[in-house]
């Protein structure tokens, strides 16, 4: 298939582009490089031997998207391009709603114009919000997130569901990611945020590389076995393969499906730090600090639906995630 990957130079998008190319699909990347580097396109080519077509465009730019669809016969779209910093979204809600909603709407309008009916959406476990019990199951109400960022995912899921209801020949898969970490085995692709990382694994990577002095663990008085938060960490390559499976599923289907992509296991912050130390033989100095606003004590996926519907199951271990994350971070 000819697959448009928006945000294809980003962390998850680039790994997905690699898996798509390996599977024989033609990849067209649209990425405005607002939080990614152009050299990622070169690296995708180095890994796969195939250079994806690349358009440095903003998905809110309808004329630019139109030109991409006019040039390539796009069979399916995987939509990653979005602002994704939870804390920043609390400070700049309008920027988040404008960017994330406008991009998704513009993309759907252009898809409609060109008769493209397969859509894979980058959603998040944050759509389950603070009120659902874990493990999270897809049929639980996903109507309230804890941040404007998360709320854009709730709203776009709703927009897509309404669109599918009005267009029964359309197929959309809403992939709800848990906590992707790790990197491509080549060490060429990984999570390399600008500035000081907000997320745990890139922060640990910078501490390991000596670029940051120590990790602050946000809270050790949660009602969890070791007092630190538990999350469902999954390898980004597993996550990328999940997109491939979703695409294969959508190929001859219609309707909308929400699917969790996680391992089904909870791992605490202390356990992840310890796994990183053991996997890489590096000490990570840490201190305990106060809780971070908006963090939930624990959540993980019920991973059954991904298995039965998409035939997808996470393959990599926490050790693999830690080893590959360091293999990338030490050269980043
Ligand atoms: C994991 C754990 C922190 C940094 C967020 C978004 C979610 C998704 C992924 C995507 C938590 C603790 C972290 C640090 C720490 N977004 N931590 N010290 O918050 O589970 O999920 O990112 O686009 O929507 O909410 O991930 O990696 O930030 O935190 O102790 O310096 O690590 O408190 O328990 P989170 P995270």
Brief sketch in words of this structure:
The protein has helices at 11-22, 39-48, 62-71, 86-91, 93-114, 148-166, 200-208, 236-250, 269-280, 304-310, 318-329; strands at 2-6, 26-30, 53-55, 76-79, 118-124, 171-177, 179-181, 215-218, 230-231, 233-235, 255-261, 267-268, 286-289.
Protein architecture, described:
The chain is an alpha/beta fold. It has a domain of 220 residues: NAD(P)-binding Rossmann-like Domain (Rossmann fold), CATH 3.40.50.720. The protein is 40% helix and 17% strand. The strands form four sheets. A seven-stranded parallel beta sheet has the order 3-2-1-4-5-6-11, sandwiched between helices. A two-stranded parallel sheet has the order 7-10. Strands 8-13 form a two-stranded parallel ribbon. Helix 1 runs parallel beside helix 2 and helix 1 crosses helix 8. It is globular, with a radius of gyration of 19 Å. The protein starts with a strand and ends with a helix. The relative contact order is 0.15. The model has no long low-confidence stretch (mean pLDDT 98). The structure holds UDP-4-deoxy-4-formamido-beta-L-arabinopyranose (WQD). UDP-4-deoxy-4-formamido-beta-L-arabinopyranose (WQD) binds next to helix 7 and strand 8.
């Amino acid at each position: 298939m000819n697959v448009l990957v928006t945000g294809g130079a980003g962390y998850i998008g680039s790994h997905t582009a690699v898996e798509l190319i390996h599977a024989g699909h033609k990849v067209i990347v649209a990425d405005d490089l607002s939080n990614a580097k152009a050299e990622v396109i070169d690296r995708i080519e180095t890994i796969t031997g195939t250079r994806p077509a690349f358009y440095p465009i903003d998905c809110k730019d309808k004329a630019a998207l139109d030109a991409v669809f006019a040039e390539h016969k796009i069979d399916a779209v995987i939509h990653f391009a979005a602002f994704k910093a939870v804390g920043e979204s609390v400070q700049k809600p309008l920027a988040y709603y404008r960017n994330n909603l406008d991009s998704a709407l513009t993309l759907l309008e252009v898809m409609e114009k060109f008769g493209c009916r397969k859509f894979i959406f980058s959603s998040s476990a944050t759509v389950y919000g603070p009120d659902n019990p874990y493990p999270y199951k897809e049929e639980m109400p996903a109507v309230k997130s804890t941040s404007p960022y998360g709320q854009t995912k709730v709203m776009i899921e709703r927009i897509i569901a309404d669109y599918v209801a009005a267009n029964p020949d359309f197929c959309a898969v809403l992939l709800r990611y848990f906590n992707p970490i790790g990197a491509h085995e080549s060490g060429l692709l990984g999570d390399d945020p600008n500035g000081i990382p907000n997320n745990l694994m890139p922060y640990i990577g910078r501490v390991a590389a000596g670029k940051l002095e120590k990790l602050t663990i946000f809270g050790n008085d949660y009602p969890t076995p070791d007092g630190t938060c538990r999350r469902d960490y999954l390898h980004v390559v597993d996550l990328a393969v999940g997109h491939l499976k979703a695409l294969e599923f959508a190929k001859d289907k219609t309707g909308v499906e929400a699917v969790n992509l996680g391992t089904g296991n909870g791992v605490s912050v202390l356990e992840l730090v310890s796994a990183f130390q053991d996997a890489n033989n590096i000490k990570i100095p840490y201190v305990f600090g106060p809780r971070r606003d908006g963090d939930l004590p624990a959540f993980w996926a019920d991973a059954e639906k991904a298995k039965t519907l998409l035939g997808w199951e996470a393959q990599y271990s926490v050790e693999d995630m830690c080893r590959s994350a360091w293999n990338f971070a030490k050269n980043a």
